[in-house]
Design goal:
alpha+beta; 2 domains; single chain; elongated
């Protein structure tokens, strides 16, 4: 089972920094997923610092396999209280889960999470722990078992309080309104990705605000338990030419989505599999060579230039949609859960200049950089095999 997670955020309309902070990580060896959403008091830079500090501390402790309850209790007791408003400087939702679906959730101050299974909202029993330092501060602890198809939604109060005081929503969207929205969207789009669902939730909250302006920081974290979407990217010719046929056979037998990055690579597969490569003329190709078509392959692009541009797109604050070949490759990555690279080790003379420094980002280095981004920023599982 693959745990698909994504977060979408919206700043308060008159601020230049997010008051909410989200962090997540996946342990490559154990498959354990950890995530924290923190809401800083107020908005802007001050709230950003408070929420960032809270989320960072919690995630580091959880990554170190510290007991999540003990960690959250330490942080809850350590967080100071605002002298004026008499509330915590930051609230949080912490989550960790293994690949078998055993999950632990700790919430303090944030809206209660929503758990959906087969179109119904599940009840989760909480154990309440009261702060030893602040008796009016309580922590809800949940231990649940997730199954294939389950959804979890975490959010800041910018979602549940959206539209507060307006004629249509005098008490805000509230948790009930969020549930109603979720169930309708999941009925219409049962296989919607976590990324797209989180965006819809934030847009819904913002749309309920007066003048469509976010009156508070809005954050939505979406988790989807599903079968992993496997993909394979073949780039670069094998080091030994006599391996061409074996590599082509592996590529052909792969059952997930498939992409080829490189003209030489595409020609090798076309020759070994007896499938022609058809060039496409696109008006929106930009400065990159356009994509090609090959029967049985989802995407065929040029190699090193396209990979380098795709890496740049992945480094952007948010991977926006680009229409060129690199943009299509980024979309291919983001629509996959487990991404496998077959990287040919043969040097491409077209990209080699002995006068360039040894650190030049040739194919192997670009792939490593893309893999790191996909693993750390987009929480994907990545495997690289050099051939």
């Amino acid at each position: 089972m693959f745990i698909d997670i994504d977060c979408t955020q919206q700043k308060k309309y008159d601020q230049n920094a997010y008051g909410d902070y989200f962090l997540s990580s996946r342990n490559k060896d154990t498959g354990k997923l950890a995530a924290v959403l923190s809401d800083g008091l107020g908005s802007g830079i001050k709230a950003n610092i408070l929420s960032c500090m809270t989320a960072t501390m919690l995630l580091k402790f959880i990554e170190a396999d510290a007991d999540i309850q003990s960690v959250c209790e330490i942080v809850m007791n350590a967080l100071p209280v605002c002298r004026v408003r008499k509330i915590s400087y930051a609230t949080f939702s912490a989550f960790d889960c293994n690949d078998e679906g055993f999950a632990r959730i700790v919430e303090e101050g944030n809206p209660q999470f929503v758990w959906v299974r087969e179109g119904e909202v599940m009840d989760a029993v909480a154990r309440v722990v009261t702060s030893a330092t602040f008796p009016n501060r309580h922590m809800q602890i949940y231990n649940i078992k997730l199954e294939l198809g389950d959804r979890l939604i975490f959010c800041s109060d910018g979602v549940t309080q959206a539209g507060l005081g307006s004629p249509a929503l005098k008490l805000g969207l509230r948790r009930e309104g969020l549930i109603e929205f979720l169930l309708k969207k999941l009925q219409d789009q049962p296989d919607i990705s976590s990324r797209d669902l989180a965006k819809l939730i934030v847009n819904c909250a913002k749309g309920n605000e007066v003048d469509k302006k976010a009156r508070d920081d809005i954050s939505a974290v979406s988790i989807y338990c599903r079968q992993p979407r496997e993909s394979l990217i073949f780039t670069g010719p094998p080091y030994h030419a006599d391996k061409d046929n074996a590599c082509a056979y592996v590529f052909k037998r792969f059952t997930g989505k498939k992409a080829i990055c490189g003209g030489t690579t595409a020609n090798i597969l076309a020759r070994e599999l007896h499938i022609p490569v058809e060039a496409q003329i696109l008006t929106n190709a930009g400065s990159l060579p356009p994509v090609s078509k090959m029967k049985g392959v989802d995407l065929v692009t040029e190699g090193i230039l396209t990979l380098t541009r795709a890496c740049e797109y992945l480094e952007e604050t948010e991977a926006v949609t680009h229409n060129d070949a690199a943009g299509q490759l980024v979309k291919f990555f983001l629509e996959s859960d487990c991404i496998n690279f077959m990287v040919g080790a043969k040097l491409n003379q077209a990209h080699y200049d002995p006068n360039m420094p040894i650190e030049i980002e040739i194919r192997k280095n670009i792939i490593k950089k893309i893999a790191k981004l996909l693993e750390t920023k987009y929480i994907k599982t990545v495997n690289i095999k050099y051939i």
